Amino acid sequence: MSSGSSGPPAGGLGAVTRALRVALHEAGALGAWRGLSRMNQADGFDCPGCAWPDPARRSRIEFCENGAKHVAHEATRRRADPDFFTRHPIPQLLVRSDRWLEAQGRIAQPMRRRPGSDHYEPVSWEAAFARIAERLQVVADPDRVVFYTSGRASNEAAFLWQLFARQLGTNNLPDCSNLCHESSGTALKESIGVGKGTVGLADFARADAIFLIGQNPGSNHPRMFTTLIEAKRRGCRIVAVNPLRERSLERFAHPKDPIGVVTGGTSIADCFLQVRVGGDVALLQAVAKEVLEAAGRAGARVLDHDFLERHTEGFEDYRAAIEATAWDDLLEQSGVSRDAIREAARIYLESERVIACWCMGLTQHKHAVANVQEIVNLLLLRGNLGVPGAGVCPVRGHSNVQGDRTMGVTPEPATGFLEDLGREFHFAPPTVPGLDSVGAIRAMAEGRVDAFLALGGNFAVATPDWETTRAGLRRCGTSVQIATTLNRSHLVTGEEAFLLPCLGRSERDEQACGPQTVSVENSMSVVHPSRGSLPPATSYLRSEPAIVAGLARAVLASRSTVAWDWLVEDYDRIRASIARVVPGCEDMNRRLRKPGGFVLPSGARSRRFETPSGRARFHVHPLPRIPLEPGQLLLTTIRSHDQFNTTVYSSDDRYRGISGDRRVLFLNPEDVAEAGLDAGARVDVTSHLAGGRRHLAGLRIVPYDLPRRCAAAYFPEANPLVPVDSFADGSRTPTYKSIVISLAPSAGPDRED
Ligand SMILES: Nc1nc2c(c(=O)[nH]1)N[C@H]1C(S)=C(S)[C@@H](COP(=O)(O)OP(=O)(O)OC[C@H]3O[C@@H](n4cnc5c(=O)[nH]c(N)nc54)[C@H](O)[C@@H]3O)O[C@H]1N2
Ligand SMILES: Nc1nc2c(c(=O)[nH]1)N[C@H]1C(S)=C(S)[C@@H](COP(=O)(O)OP(=O)(O)OC[C@H]3O[C@@H](n4cnc5c(=O)[nH]c(N)nc54)[C@H](O)[C@@H]3O)O[C@H]1N2
Ligand SMILES: [Mo]
Question: Is the CB of 152 within 6 Å of ligand 2?
């Protein structure tokens, strides 16, 4: 049985060696070194992987194994050039695996698929823009156009993109955040008045305890370990909450940490709570119940009464609700023992300052908003908000997903933002809310969308319910995608399709006024510069801002009040507009040039809660019920160590002991035995969620250390199991992490991917 507690520790010297090997193989020696040595340096480019911030004192090597893989993927020597597209008609590409498509390398030139043709063929930039303009100009209603954004786009590109959409006349700006941390934003906005985290790196240096909830940092945010290990050295304690015993949470040797390497691994988690999938509301309420009981016993010192009185509302209702909830229900639903909960509560109570970090393990459930609000409730009890060393930290995924939102990429922008945008560019932006990701899928499937434009991403694969999503994408008459590498979304298109290849983060961006720098915002609201230095993969590539400007100029033509070409000649001009439109970005050009960039202001960091009452709000949530019939299990979907979202680098998942197969189903060994199944056998999975049953054939059973009646499978392979109408209350994020399933022995032949 593969279990997180055996085998070598995660990370360590092996990870660094592997990183270099991957980079060398893909990009060659010179490219690899040029790329990696500039990554996350003050004058270099921001890692296109996760959004964890850079330390103030950077070392010569400021990257992780997985960051190296992302850069190597971008710096690959392979090219999907016109010759490739001549040799591979689209129907043939469609039967290839996602991995094979990505492995063809960088898209070399702008490509067009004419109506009725089976091939992509090269097209000049100007001809592509002109033809896209022709097609969009006949769309009767701007709300029949969708502008999707993935979180790698720079602030400058994202700002121009939303301006393009709004000048066309729509707020249809769904983004990958809808599939990711939307639940965090929705929950935090209601609870503390701002949809972002409240801590910075310096707070990690002062916290007495850090809770890591529903997150696998060893694979997805490895650089976070530097911070965690430093915190542990000071005596800070770490509580991890996860259904899977992730090896990196238990034993992790940081590549830059000689002691960890020598001793064979530091245990990150002082306390590990093996929660049931979807059991976090119960778990967090249980810890709170323990805290409230302690307050009943010990009196004044347990709760922060002064903070509760001056800065919060709803405490009495919350306390009453927690007191009224039975221990039996909390223990059963969370799946965690009373002793383990006592231990977590003890750490919480012994700590003056506590930070709670979380990621996708919490945000992709029906009750995801409640998950996040229960974290806030727990922190509020002891005033762990708005003081140094304490607060909330939703750990972001894509490297600029938070920045794209700040730049106005959202279907429901604030009124003030629209007014300022209109004033800056002399037009009247649309005020009707647009489509989010789930809404866009529905609208496409119902034939209400004529054009799908995407600034990066892989909409056909990252989304739930592939059948519905792909049927919808095929109904969009025009498809325009700005991308670096080939993926399935580029093949599942309407009548006429365009692929517009862009520069990656690591590449030099040269415009009329010279080399350009872009900006990005990390998980902790720090806006900082990113400057690529590698030579572009081909001479045809254009930067994302230049492509967006070219599209907008052609499509909007004389209707536009924006000097698009002038803006992209020098990105300082884009930023001058951002500074006048986006709150917190005042004087952006000057502040971006300061070492480390600048931090966006947030009232919650200093206890000014921008809620209607000016107070942080406790929220009362009933225990969610996810009834399981006999034989049913609750499935969660996870990333392997060797993928970036839909870009899968290999079929191995080293820390979980998997090699050569991603069509696997992790199950508790007792559930395997009870169902009369065998380890290694293949099963067919049926999901039972609002919106109907879905099927997935041929997953191989891997017995694993996770709670009874829970299961895990990989994203994106398991996505077809989630119906498009199964999403979180309040945030509409697909329920990728609570999928009710049943199993049957596989009838079909054994298959490998
Ligand atoms: N190398 C690499 N880095 C990445 C990415 C990548 O794909 N590869 N993706 C980026 C993006 S966009 C994002 S959003 C982040 C994602 O980063 P993570 O959120 O760490 O990614 P997931 O694999 O989705 O992991 C969720 C974790 O939650 C646990 N979990 C599942 N269900 C539950 C539950 O019900 N409760 C609790 N408490 N835990 C649960 C899983 O076991 C897993 O450890 O990483 C970013 N960084
Ligand atoms: N079942 C399940 N589904 C999930 C999740 C899950 O945990 N479980 N997680 C969800 C989450 S958290 C997210 S964020 C979404 C991700 O959804 P997306 O953001 O749509 O998907 P990615 O796989 O990140 O997009 C990869 C593609 O982006 C393009 N690309 C890469 N770099 C660049 C660049 O610099 N510029 C441009 N223009 N294009 C670039 C490449 O063509 C690449 O193929 O998936 C979601 N889907
Ligand atoms: Mo994400």
Answer: yes
700-753 pLDDT per residue, tens: 999 999 999 999 999 999 999 999 999 999 999 999 999 999 999 997 655 444
Q: Contact, 197 vs 605, CB < 8 A?
A: no
Q: What sign results for the dihedral spanned by CA atoms 464, 470, 475, 477? A: positive
CA of 645 to the centre of ligand 3 (A): 8
* Pocket of ligand 2 contains residue 482 by CB under 6 Å: yes
For 228-278, what is each residue's pLDDT tens digit?
988 998 999 999 999 999 877 777 666 555 444 434 566 789 999 999 999
Q: Report the distance separating Cα 524 and Cα 746, nearest Å.
A: 46
Q: Is the preceding omega at residue 82 within 30 degrees of 0, hence cis?
A: no
CA gap 699, 11 in Å, rounded: 28
Nearest to 447 by CA among 235, 144, 185: 144
Counting from 1 in the atom list of ligand 2, the atom nearest the Cα of 645 is 23
Q: b/e string for 55-83 if b means 16 or more Cβ within 10 A?
A: eeeeeebbbbbbbbbbbbbbbbeebbbbe
To test the ligand 2 pocket, which listed residue (46, 147, 363, 458) has its Cβ within 8 A of the most ligand atoms?
Answer: 458
Q: How confident is the model at residue 17 (pLDDT cuts 50, 70, 90)?
A: low
138 class by beta-carbon count within 10 Å (0-12 exposed, 13-18 middle, 19+ buried): exposed
Domains for the chain: give ranges and CATH numbers: 10-75 (no CATH), 80-177+400-593 (3.40.50.740), 182-394 (3.40.228.10), 632-745 (2.40.40.20)
Which of 179, 358, 438 to probe ligand 2 with, by most ligand atoms within 8 A of CB? 179
Looking at all shown ligands, the one closest to residue 176's CA atom is 2
Rounded to the nearest angstrom, the distance between the alpha carbon of 461 and the centre of ligand 2 is 8
pTM for the whole structure: 0.95
Neighbours of ion ligand 3 (CB under 5 A): 180, 397
Residues linked to residue 687 through DSSP beta bridges, in sequence order: 694, 741
Examine the pLDDT at 8 and tell me if it is beyond 60.
no
